[in-house]
Amino acid sequence: MKNFVEELKWRGMIQDIMPGTEEKLMEGPTAAYVGIDPTADSLHIGHLVSIMILKHFQNCGHKPLALVGGATGMIGDPSMKSQERNLLDEETLTHNVACIKKQLSIFLDFDSGDANCAELVNNYDWMKGYSFLDFTRDIGKHITVNYMMAKDSVKKRLSAESREGMSFTEFTYQLIQGYDFLWLYQHKGCTLQMGGADQWGNITTGSELIRRVLGKEAFALTCPLITKADGGKFGKTEKGNIWLDPERTSPYQFYQFWLNVSDADAEKYIKIFTLLSKEEIEAAVAAHAEAPHLRSLQKLLAKEITVMVHGEEEYRKAVSASEILFGNATSESLKNLDERTFLQVFEGVPTFEIDEAKLPCGIIDLLSVETQVFPSKGECRKMIQANGVSINKDKVSDINAEIGTGHLIDGKYILAQKGKKNYFIIKVCR
Fold first, then answer.
1. Which residue of the set 16, 37, 138, 198 is catalytic?
2. Annotated catalytic residue: which of 16, 24, 37, 39?
3. Which is it for the CA torsion 107, 78, 147, 187, positive or negative?
4. b or e along 140-173 (b: 16 or more beta carbons within 10 Å of the residue's beta carbon)?
5. Are strands 413-418 and 422-429 parallel, antiparallel or unpaired?
6. pLDDT digits (tens, 9 = 90+) for 78-117
7. Active site residue 103
8. Sign of CA dihedral 37, 39, 42, 44
9. What is the pLDDT of residues 135-175, one digit of tens each?
């Protein structure tokens, strides 16, 4: 068997690990789980670390369990939170769980029938019929309030710095998560729980509950919380999360996010978010160091993760779209863009509108009368004669050229370019 802990160590993916975990895993195949919060109908790249841990776990011959917290999602985890969050209803949670399962299937083998086939579990299934009285009698008596109060997630919320305090609902979270581990231990043979560093307190409550209820040993492993080299929050942009759902974050935007990370972050992220081997990554880092201006490490990172999440075809489209701004793209590649990607590539570019009845239109009138790409016909004429005007990435050298509906991108746009960097969108309205 491949050593799972060793694989995570060189990738920088272990923060805390309970003594004996590595030895237990090397005894033979076992099951482990990671909890996933179902508060949205898509995962985002903040979830990717946990997903990659499950993927490595399966690749090392073990059985990964993805626990979607249908029950705990109704309560809200207090870890790293300054205030209580909104609670979700059952219908919303059911929808979210179905969407998340579909996305997890991109990374994990759920269907092969192999012994280490991944499995999705929902803690709502075993919590929905468990009465409050039975839970407090069967489970609550094993964990003291003193033990629960000692957890950092509880301490922070009860500290003088927190004005919100903590409701009983959130206080019970670690006990319910602990019961998840106990249930999975008893019914799925799950001996290990994994998660982010902020989950260490909740995870160890589970292993402690197993010890007290069953007299058995269970294990825990956490990965570091991912940060950016500049101290900013990983996975967040001005527009919010980077989602795995292409309807929320397009493959082009997804690709651009990874392409634009710093050198230091690229070196860290390529170990965490790809399946490239140690030798491949070391070679890529060395090549990047020789010519950092080429950003070869970022390109490799963006390729690997975009292909893994969105597939080879969407990756190629994202590269093609990127080259429109920064490479030697042609009008053909421009016309192959869908409207959404086209508008994302040229986000923030000045936009003019004209009526379709105005087409065909002479190039000078189009750029200086019908729109204000140029302030005057004279300036437009001079720029064309100087070979400085392009329509849809094609140079225009004829001052009498006409632009018609055959030039439209996606049936409604014309891209005008003045010089090398000044772009303008002309939207043609019907």
1. 198
2. 39
3. negative
4. bebbeeeebeebebbebbeeeeeeeebeeebbbb
5. antiparallel
6. 554 444 455 677 788 889 988 999 999 999 999 999 999 9
7. no
8. negative
9. 999 999 999 888 888 888 788 777 756 666 788 877 888 89
Q: Tell whether the model's pLDDT for residue 311 goes beyond 50.
A: yes
Reported pTM: 0.85
CA distances from 116 to 59, 123, 139, 219, 379 (A): 9, 21, 30, 19, 69
Alpha-carbon span 39 to 68, nearest angstrom: 10
Active site residue 142: no
Lookup result for tokens 């003193």: 146
Evaluate whether 331 touches 410 at the Cβ level (below 8 Å). Answer: no
Catalytic residue list contains 114: no
Residue 5, judged by CB atoms within 10 A of its CB (0-12, 13-18, 19+), counts as middle
Q: Indicate which residue of 30, 177, 341, 417 is catalytic.
A: 177
% of the chain residues with pLDDT over 70: 94
Task: Report the C-alpha gap between 52 and 308 in whole angstroms.
Answer: 11
pLDDT digits (tens, 9 = 90+) for 5-63: 999 999 999 999 999 999 999 999 999 999 998 888 999 999 999 999 999 999 999 99
Q: How many CB atoms lie within 10 A of CB 238?
A: 4
Per the annotation, the verdict on 187 as an active-site residue is no
Which residue in 101, 16, 8, 10 sits closest to 52, CA to CA?
Answer: 8
What is each CA distance from 320 to 22, 258, 338, 411, in whole angstroms?
Answer: 44, 16, 12, 20
Q: What's the rounded Cα separation, in Å, for the pair 11 and 278? A: 8
Residue 270 CA to residue 262 CA, distance in Å, equals 12
47 is catalytic: yes
List the catalytic residue out of 21, 41, 47, 288: 47
Counting every residue written for the chain, the total comes to 430
Nearest to 140 by CA among 178, 181, 110, 109: 178
Q: Is 303 a catalytic residue?
A: no
Choosing from 15, 16, 85, 316, the catalytic residue is 85
